Every structure is written in C-alpha cells, then in structure tokens.
TrEMBL record, chain A:
This is Protein ImuB. CDD domains: PolY_like. Residues 185-271 form the DNA polymerase Y-family little finger domain. One of its GO terms (molecular function) is damaged DNA binding. One of its GO terms (biological process) is DNA repair.
From TrEMBL, chain B:
It comes from the Bacteria. InterPro entries: ImuA (IPR017026), P-loop_NTPase (IPR027417). This is Protein ImuA.
Length: 446, 249
C-alpha cells in the first residue's frame, strides 16, 4: 500500500522510515537471547525471522508445546507479536510460521508435506522474480508445484525450485549455520579416524569437559547451558544440550550430565569432531566453605536436580501460598529456590490426597450446619459415623467477582470402616446466593 | 554353655554380615519409638540403606493415603532432603507438613512413566546424602526392587516405595515377592473415641508382612503426630475390628 493511500485511510498516521540495518542488529540480539535460552543452533532467517534447531533441547523447557508457548509469551510481554512454528524441516517451519493465523503451531513428525502443500509458493524462499513467473504459469500452491514434473521446471527456472521443494520435504539436508558470540567458551576435538563406540565417545566427552572447565575457571564463569556438537563424517550434526539449575564448574557433575545421554548419540558412519560449547555462562566465584565442627553439613542436591531435569522430568518443590482455598494454597516453585520459612497455618487436619477436581456426591444432611448422615461417592454409599466441621472457607472476591458471596463448608467425615474423607457443601446452607448447596468430595484422609 | 552358644551365634552373625557385603556393618536404624514395633524389627527399627515397601489396604490400595502419610512420617524423622518420585501429582502438601515433613525438604520429581520413577529413585538413592527417597509405584518387579535395594545399601539412604494400584482388584500383586527389606500394609481403622462428637486421632492397622531376619507382626497404632511418630494405640487390645481387615489378601 502506498504511503499516501494509508495516510488517506488513517488520520494522524505516523510514518517512520524503515531502518533495515537497525532491524538486523536487533534481530541478532534476539538470536543471541534465543541461543542462551532455547536452542544451541540459532540463525537469522531472512530479514524477519529466526530459525532454531530445538531437537535435543526442548526437554529443558518441558516439551515442544510449553517451549513454543514460552517463546510466544516472552515476545507478547514486550508487546510484540510473534508467530512460532515447529516442523521437521527449516523450509516447512519457515512457511508455516508465516502462514498461520494462530500464535503457535506444531507440525507432527512425518506430516510436514501435508501441512505445507496448500500454502502459496511465495513461502518457498524463492527469488521474487521466480515466484512471479511461476504465478504467470498458473502455479498457486506448493503442492501443485511439487506434483509437476521436475525437468521442465529445472530447464525454465534452474535448479533452485527443485532444491527448495526437496528442502521443505526434508529430502536434502539444510544445515543451519549457528551464530556465536565472540566470548562464547568453546573447546573442540578433531579425530583422525572417525569414532563411534560409546566408551570412546564417553572418554573424549570427559576430556572436553576438563578442558572447558579449565577455560571457564580462567574467566571466573560457571556454565548454565552446555552444548555438545557431534559432527559426523556424512556432514550431519547432532546436538545434545545439558542445562543446569545453578552455574556449574564441576568436572564430575558436567560429565555425568552428558554421559547420561550418550546413548542418544547416533554415530552413523562415525564422528569426526566433537565440540563442547558453554552456550550460557554466569559468573561463579570461589567461595570459602565454613568448616564447622558443630553444624551438620547440608548436602547440596543441585547435581541431582540437574540429572532429573536433563532427563526431561519435572522437578519442583511446593511452597505455601496465603490462601484459604485448598487448591490455591500450594504452588510449584523451582527446586533450587530459596528455602521458605512460613508454612501453612491452622490446626485443622488436611487430607493426604486432594482430588484434582472436586467430585459431586449425593449426601443426606440436615441443613444448615449438620454433617451428612450418609454420602454416595462413585457409586459407593458411605454411612457417616463420625464427623467434624463445618470449617467455613470464603471465596476470594479479589480474584474473581463471582466469588464475592461464595462459601464452602468443609466437613471431615468417617465411615464405619474408618475411611475418612474431606467433603464440602457449596454454600452456607441458608442463602442460595452463597452457592448451589451441592455436596462435593475433595480429599481423602489417611 | 550359654556363653559358648552366644559366642557361636555372634560368630555366625559376623559371617552372615560378611556375606551380605561390607556395607551391612554400618547399617543403622531409625527406631519408631514404640517398643512393640521396634522389637519386631532386627536392629530395633527401620534400617537405613534398605528398601521398605508400604501398601494400603481396602480402598487404600487405590488412593494410598495412609501408606503415603506413614511414609511421610518416617521421612520426616530422617535428616536431609527428601526426594519424592511420582506419576500422579495429587499429594496435598499441608497434610505432610502436619506430620512434620517441611515443604522445604521435599523435592518432587514427576515423571510420565512408571519406569522413569524407578530410574529416578535409583539415581536419587545412589546420590547419597539424602534423608529418604520415596517413590509411588504401581508395579515393583523383582529385578527393579533388587536394583533399588543395592543402590540404597551402597549409600545408606532409606528407600521407601508406596504401592498404589489403579484398581482394588489389582492389589493382589502385592503377593509377588520383591527384594524389599520390610513390607508393610497400612489400613485405616476407626479413629479414637472422643468424649464429644467429632473425629479423634486416626488409627491404623499396621501389618508387617515381611521382614528380613524377623517375624511378621500386626499392630494397631495411632497415626503420625506432628513429629511423624506413631504409637501403639491403647485400643489395640480390642480385636473387634480384626474380622474386617485384609479383605484382599
């Protein structure tokens, strides 16, 4: 749209000259940020995109879906709109990220071509002239182009069209040339003869870690993200990323993190080069340990937490939240977070198992403040022999306006077999404004 | 005569300890504080550096509430961090804090698969320096339990498995042998009588189903207090409730 037309459409339109050089500088900065947080291989894609090879690194974010959501949200927090796509190939991810209307999309493995065949050929990363000429010939979508015999196309447009089509389907490799900062600490080892055995890989990974730690020690840094680049003789590359919860400069600790995953390395025809990079490093100063005869040594469990984290398991601690509503009174915090002194207050007993969602039960009860005589939960009738309650919990109106009047009355009941349950009634039993007066099962006591 | 016999028994004990490996010598125990229970266990308590297995009885086979709280009470009385491995995150931490297990001490490791829970437990047990490692498991094969037991023996960390099945009928799986040093079944009993309406201190029926170098036993105990201790319930002489127990064994 010409500027004059836009000005005619919108009153008071502000015009700023495009500054491609500044854009590129900013994009480089974002690429370095992505390198630190998300993936060992990051490169700038065109003038408006980034490409990340996240294979072997997404587990640190909890999987692909949490990862793309996190990426989108961190842009959204800065009032920027990002489109994130995950696909098997660079070409497919490039096309999908620019075509989708949603914020994020994940193309399942093997479904790549089906996802891109309806997309316009302008997303094929071809020169503009080629795209225009193809349009003249009547090609609209990538699928149409792919189903046409190759030879006439190559004769008319050169090999570029075929190459891009193969790249989008993953038939030919398209290595990403990763960016590096000047101060990245990196050590590498070339092999005269390709190596492949697990023991050999372990041995050299161990030596590289020793070298890397020596480098880091000189600079007073500790590693937060370390990448192992495995370069093979057939010019393919595999990357393993290990993350740590705190800056680390410990040989045994780092070696363990990589050796845990040696089995994931596919040596193929052999490995000719191993590179170990400290993608993210933070200052780590030596500190003196207080040697005390009286105080007991507290074990540092951070290495164990890193082992679990790099296996893709969720590691967390639970911390109290100042809320009376049971399901809100607990939050997950990082396993290495500072110790929290406060704990839950109140002498009321709490159930060991809390049902993820309260389940509706049938109860026979005298309103308003007597415990039920009997309840029926999941088809089993429990005769209430003893009960304690009610413990009244009010809704938190500052969170949701609907909770302004809401009330829950909790009872602890025991049946004739000694099974103890935590049930509640929505509402105070008198005023229908406070709740539906239905009964719910919420937890199981020991 | 008796001195000679004692000498012979002590000699035999030494030879057995040598067969069990060097670690067995510095095996120490965590006493329950209730003499009846401690007497039934060799060494006078739950051994550190060993695997212990707890299961629920009745509907507790599915929710495992009593077994989990019993495990939490034991973990609370150990020193050092506690690693709790699970697949179903429905544990309500305020209840664990009420038996003395502070939230700061517990690190949860949530895995998608049972096998990962076993792997995490083994890793944590062989790390050393932890107070206890608790895992909630459906299946505990012999080989896996042997690995956990060996890892626990190497470092002297207490390993606790809370068995929790998907359905009550699957619970006869508990009859399969495992390498655990002790195996317990914890079933709920009606709570202690109060002079006023209300629910008193909960009581459990503890069955010590297997113990290495010891005999099986049964106890009626009062549930964990705020320090994680249990004690023999005064109502245990009353056997009126024993007819109802172990419906599934």
């Amino acid at each position: 749209m010409p500027a004059a037309k836009a000005q005619a459409l919108f009153r008071g339109l502000m015009l700023v000259d495009a500054d491609p050089a500044a854009d590129a500088r900013r994009l480089d900065m974002i690429a370095l940020w992505a390198l630190e947080y998300y993936s060992p291989i990051v490169a700038v894609d065109g003038i408006d995109g980034l490409v990340l090879d996240t294979e072997g690194a997404d587990h640190l974010q909890g999987g692909e879906l949490p990862m793309v959501t996190k990426i989108f949200n961190s842009f959204h927090a800065k009032k920027l709109t990002a489109r994130v796509a995950v696909a098997d190939t660079w070409g497919a991810a490039h096309a999908c990220a620019r075509a989708i209307k949603r914020e994020t999309v994940i193309i399942p493995t093997g479904k790549t071509f089906r996802a891109v065949e309806r997309l316009p050929i302008s997303l094929l990363r071809l020169p503009e002239k080629t795209v225009a000429d193809l349009r003249v010939l009547g090609f609209q979508t990538i699928g149409e182009l792919a189903n046409t015999p190759r030879a006439p196309l190559a004769l008319r447009f050169g090999p570029e069209v075929g190459r891009r089509l193969d790249q989008i389907r993953g038939l030919i490799a398209e290595p990403i040339d990763p960016i590096r900062t000047a101060e990245t600490v990196q050590v590498s080892r070339n092999f005269q003869e390709p190596i492949g055995a697990a023991e050999t890989i372990n041995k050299y990974v161990g030596r590289l870690v020793v070298q890397l730690v020596a480098e880091l020690e000189k600079r007073g840094l500790g590693v937060r993200r370390a990448d192992l680049f495995v370069e093979k003789v057939d010019n393919t590359r595999q990357v393993i990323r290990a993350g740590t919860a705190k800056p680390v400069r410990d040989v045994a600790w780092l070696t363990k993190l990589f050796r845990d995953r040696t089995e994931k390395i596919e040596p193929g025809f052999g490995i000719e080069r191993l590179v170990l990079v400290a993608a993210a490093a933070e200052p780590l100063v030596e500190e003196q340990r207080i040697s005390s005869l009286v105080e007991e040594e507290v074990t540092d469990v951070t290495p164990l937490i890193d082992i679990f984290g790099n296996r893709g398991q969720r590691v967390y601690r639970l911390a109290p939240v100042a809320s009376d509503v049971p399901e809100r009174s607990v939050q997950r915090v990082s396993a290495v977070a500072e110790a929290i002194e406060e704990t839950w207050v109140g002498h009321w007993r709490r159930p060991v198992r809390l049902l993820p969602h309260p389940e509706v039960i049938d109860a026979i009860a005298l309103m308003p403040d007597h415990p039920p005589r009997s309840v029926t939960w999941r088809g089993n009738r429990h005769k209430v022999v003893r009960a304690d309650g009610p413990e009244r919990i009010f809704g938190e109106w500052w969170r949701r306006p609907a909770e302004l009047e809401a009330v829950r009355d909790y009872f602890m009941i025991e049946n004739e077999h000694g099974e103890r349950f935590w049930i509640y009634r929505a509402g105070d039993g008198v005023d229908p404004e406070t709740g539906s007066h239905k009964w719910f099962m919420h937890g199981i006591f020991a | 005569m008796s001195a000679a016999r004692e000498l012979a028994i002590a000699d035999l004990r030494d030879r057995i300890a040598a067969l069990e490996g060097g670690v067995a010598k510095r095996k120490v125990c965590l006493p329950f504080g209730a003499p009846e229970i401690d007497d039934a266990l060799p060494g006078g308590g739950l051994a550190y550096g060993a695997l212990h297995e707890f299961a629920g009885g009745g509907s507790g086979t599915v929710d495992g509430a009593a077994a989990a709280l019993f495990a939490a009470g034991i973990a609370a009385r150990t020193k050092g961090p506690v690693v709790w491995c699970l697949t179903r995150p429905d544990l309500f931490l305020p209840a664990l804090a009420q038996v003395g297990l502070q939230p700061n001490r517990v690190i949860f490791v949530e895995a998608g698969k049972e096998e990962d829970v076993l792997g995490s437990m083994e890793e944590a047990l062989s790390f050393g320096g932890l107070g206890a490692v608790v895992g909630e498991l459906v299946r505990l094969p012999m080989v896996a339990s042997r690995r956990l037991q060996l890892a626990a023996e190497r470092t002297g960390t207490m390993g606790i498995v809370v068995r929790r099945w998907r359905r009550q009928t699957e619970a006869n799986d508990f009859g399969q042998p495992t390498a655990a040093t002790t195996r317990w079944r914890v079933s709920v009993l009606p709570s202690e009588e109060l002079p006023v309406p209300g629910v008193g201190r909960p009581r459990w029926f503890l069955e010590l189903m297997r113990v290495k170098a010891g005999e099986c036993a049964e106890f009626c105990v009062g549930a964990c207090d705020d320090q994680g201790r249990i004690d023999i319930s005064p109502g245990s002489a009353d056997r009126s409730n024993s007819a109802r127990r172990s419906v599934h064994s």
